[in-house]
Design goal:
Largest sheet: 9 strands, mixed
Structural class: alpha/beta
Shape: globular
Oligomer: single chain
């Protein structure tokens, strides 16, 4: 490559650092292409897209292979079915980008989400995560997803950052990626806790940049039972009691909103 071309490429990458979009896919052939196209419509061009086929039994693999053959910035990986967290981690480890955006194979992003997020992350090194306003949608239309602004105390009780936040790869690797032993859902919540509990700011962009698809196969519906919630709370308390003790004065409770008040009362009574 001529020196001038190398110099131009180097300058471009300094001004426009690469972001790797990680799309784990398990039997989502019906939605995969639309998800990929939403990324390709981005007004940010320094994009690497990594599709990870998690042992699909439909034609997801064939669709992903065709997309990777058609577009030079799409990489295709495949593995035995090991779960979405394993697939995300595989894609993140493979990724070349300074920044990471996990995107489920049935969800969509707006054209300006990546560019606006990277602008914040490049200008403010103290910011670890950028997310945005979002909507939920299905065949009948859209409805607002009322996401609260970030604060650590609230994160201790509930998650307000969907999985498709944008963050630096180095910060992700520093906490070991997504926890593959969390099998009861909301693994993104636990990921944000371990990334942010010891510091780092979060910015929510003031526009709709993420579109969460509702359908019968949505993992959120499958993991919304009381039993899964109890398992999830037990897991979080085991992994992050230091965080909950600091923010909630004790463990996270099944009635999460009342956790701090209940823990404080128990401590006052000498029962905790």
């Amino acid at each position: 490559m001529p020196y001038i071309a190398i110099l131009k490429t180097s300058i471009f990458l300094r001004l426009h650092p690469t972001i790797s979009i990680i799309i784990p896919c398990y039997n989502q052939a019906k939605y995969l292409q639309e998800s990929v196209e939403s990324v390709l419509k981005s007004n940010y061009t320094a994009i690497q897209l990594v599709i990870v086929n998690d042992g699909s039994t439909d034609n997801s693999k064939e669709i992903a292979e065709k997309l990777s053959e058609k577009y030079s910035n799409i990489n295709f990986l495949t593995q035995k079915n090991s779960g979405v967290t394993s697939a995300r981690n595989k894609g993140i480890e493979f990724a070349d980008g300074k920044y990471i955006l996990p995107l489920d194979a049935d969800d969509l992003i707006s054209p300006n989400y990546i560019s606006e997020a990277i602008k914040v992350l490049e200008e403010r090194p103290e910011v670890k995560v950028v997310y945005c306003e979002a909507v939920k949608f299905d065949q009948s239309g859209q409805k607002p997803w009322k996401l609260k602004d970030f604060n650590l105390s609230l994160l201790a009780r509930n998650n307000m950052i969907f999985v498709s936040g944008i963050f630096r790869k180095v910060d992700c690797m520093a906490v070991g990626g997504f926890s593959t032993d969390m099998k009861m859902g909301r693994e993104d919540w636990e990921f944000w806790i371990k990334m942010l509990k010891n510091g780092g700011e979060v910015v929510k962009l003031p526009f709709i940049g993420f579109f969460y698809r509702l359908h019968g196969g949505s993992k959120r519906k499958k993991t919304g039972t009381k039993q899964k919630k109890r398992e999830r709370i037990a897991y979080l308390n085991t992994k992050h009691m230091d965080f909950f003790e600091r923010e909630l004065n004790g463990p996270l409770r099944f009635q999460r909103t009342w956790s701090k008040a209940y823990n404080t009362l128990l401590k006052f009574l000498g029962k905790l």
